[in-house]
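Appendix B. Raw example, untouched.
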Amino acid sequence: MATDLFGREHMDELQIVPARKIAATAVKVFATKDPEDFRTTWTAALKLGFEGVPGGRHAGHTRRSGAREPWYPRGTEMCNERQVSILSVEELAEVAADMDLPRIEAEWIGGNVLTEGLPRLSLVPPRTRLVFAGGAVLRVDGDNVPCRIAGASIGEHYPEREGIDLLFPRTARRRRGLVAYVERPGVIRPGEAITAHVPEHWLYR
């Protein structure tokens, strides 16, 4: 991609992907049963406030930084952009197959919303709005990086297999779903239609 003397890209050579809408479905929704446990359980309706899932492990307007934010001292208070975990039926099936496992369930790894019909969910760009038919809106922050903790949770369901805690982070990279925050509170129910408003985006070099 050509640049001028100031390092600016020529706009006529910049590949811009237009904004678009994609239809999907919320297959299941889950909430935290024990605030000390990141795993979730099925629920008939997922209530969302501006703080996220009320009473949930990841609820709050702010959170403490951890290993994902090495630019801050651990424990620094920061904006909570990780209120809700979104997963897809398609990607969970792919990851399970590549790990030679019968299945991976969303609740095992702390999912809140399980979707179907949104291709390559984990690659949906930041700023995408997920608008649910009931009125709730989630704003995508980015992909959720898989970790050994989630892998160990999966491993508990397959005690005959060793090394799942390490295999999952390697296999599920860019297929572990999204994290998002609540832009508009509401209630999400299983079977609800989703419209993903994907913004105009481009590759920043």
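End of appendix B.
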